[in-house]
Request: fold
Amino acid sequence: MSHSAWFPEGAVEIEGEYTTHYHCGPEQPERYRGFCPICGTGRFFRSGPSFPNTIAFTAGTFADPDFPAPKFILYWDSRPKWLVEPDGVTLYAKGDD
Reply:
């Protein structure tokens, strides 16, 4: 389970080199992930029409223990059962509710 932080595209500037992986193939070129070309670490991703005009980062890459809690969680029904429901967070059973 990972926590992603989403930002409007206009609020983000990607610097440095990255390798692109189109995880949905050539049929959906607007959905891709950017990786470090040297070590392979994931840097950012875009999900095209699912969250248009946004760019996301895995929250753990910020290395900030005070990083804000999410506003919503997708695929709540697939979570580890030991994960308790957080206060004030909207939960979606799947990703398309």
